[in-house]
Design a protein that fits this description.
By secondary structure, this protein is of the alpha/beta class. The chain has 2 domains: 3-245, P-loop containing nucleotide triphosphate hydrolases (Rossmann fold, 3-Layer(aba) Sandwich); 246-283, no CATH class. The chain contains 10 helices and 10 strands. α3 packs across α4 and α4 (118-131) packs across α5 (148-160). The protein is globular. Bound molecules: adenosine-5'-diphosphate (ADP) and magnesium ion.
């Protein structure tokens, strides 16, 4: 199951009807249970790619299998709802999409749309709110009277209330402070580890990529230029052409190795680096 892209291209149309190819002949499998990060420069096609994953965009060429559904849809009567329920897409700056008068109502919107009763929708909404760490007391407040980080949680709860199998997140930590960003990532990691959600996450933050992603895709000019593990990414011959940074701990390790002659070993987090230093110092 999961998602399979088969030779997918997407062309945006400009005002003069000219076309611009944003992704080019992408063939890609996302399997159930994966935690995939997507990186790449601005304009490389990341958002366009992931917007196909819940049928927000339809391929100009090629086909996509999204669980039991196929894009392009057979005809106009085929409903998109079931795809949206399977794959929850959280936009960049999702807080701009809040609109209801209370937080609870905002989170209930999706489940109600999929035909649940008021009571059932409220149950799902309360569960989702709890999952993202929103207190019960806050649920009757207006979504416009809370902090940006909280607003983002409300938007994510709204997606989770539909109980998707896969969560697709477009730069979810962008604009958050370091603490907010860490908390957000801890949440996604918990959804992955404890609740078995498949995660597809676009980010520029290589510390996040190296800490959480089990598989990394790097896009460049509408194509996938790298698809593999962190262990392979940073030693890949392609790496310097991908315009990516290395994780901080990794760079620190390189520095220690170059200046003090420590034998180099790949480390991806501060904890890895600390463990390594303890090992070489025989502590
Ligand atoms: N609505 C749109 N209309 C026309 N071109 C677009 C539109 N959205 C994105 N593009 C173009 O498609 C390319 C890929 O964009 P995007 O998928 O947003 O990349 P990324 O998310 O990696 O920054 C870019 O060159 C961008 O300018
Ligand atoms: Mg983008």
């Amino acid at each position: 199951m999961g998602i399979q892209f088969n030779q997918v291209s997407y062309f945006y149309r400009g005002v003069k009807n000219e076309t611009y190819e944003a992704i080019n002949q992408i063939t890609l499998n996302i399997n159930d249970g994966e935690f995939v990060a997507i990186c790449g420069q601005t304009g490389s096609g990341k958002t366009t790619l992931v917007q196909h994953m819940n049928a927000l965009l339809k391929p100009t060429k090629g086909t996509i299998q999204i669980y039991e559904h196929t894009l392009p849809l057979k005809d106009k009567k085929t409903k998109i709802g079931p795809i949206r329920k399977k794959v929850g897409l959280v936009f960049q700056f999702p807080e701009y999409q809040l609109f209801e008068e209370t937080i609870l109502k905002d989170i209930m919107f999706g489940p109600l749309n999929f035909g649940l009763s008021l009571k059932e929708a409220e149950e799902k909404a309360r569960e989702a709110a709890k999952l993202v760490g929103l207190d019960d007391e806050i649920l009757q407040k207006s979504p416009f009277r809370i902090s940006g980080g909280q607003m983002r949680r409300v938007a994510i709860a709204g997606i989770l209330a539909m109980e998707p199998e896969m969560l697709v997140l477009d730069e979810p930590t962008r604009g958050l402070d370091p603490k907010g960003s860490d908390e957000m990532m801890a949440l996604f990691n918990e959804l992955h580890e404890k609740h078995g959600k498949t995660i597809v996450l676009i980010t520029h933050d290589m510390d996040i990529v190296a800490r959480y992603a089990k598989r990394i895709l790097v896009m460049d000019k509408g194509k996938i230029k790298f698809d593999g593990t962190r262990e392979l990414l940073f030693i890949s011959d392609e790496f310097e052409h991908l315009h990516l940074a290395k994780p901080q701990a990794y760079r620190m390790m390189e520095y220690l190795s170059n200046t003090l002659g420590y034998p180099f070993k790949q480390v991806f987090t501060e904890e890895d680096l600390l463990a390594y230093l303890k090992e070489v110092r025989h502590e």
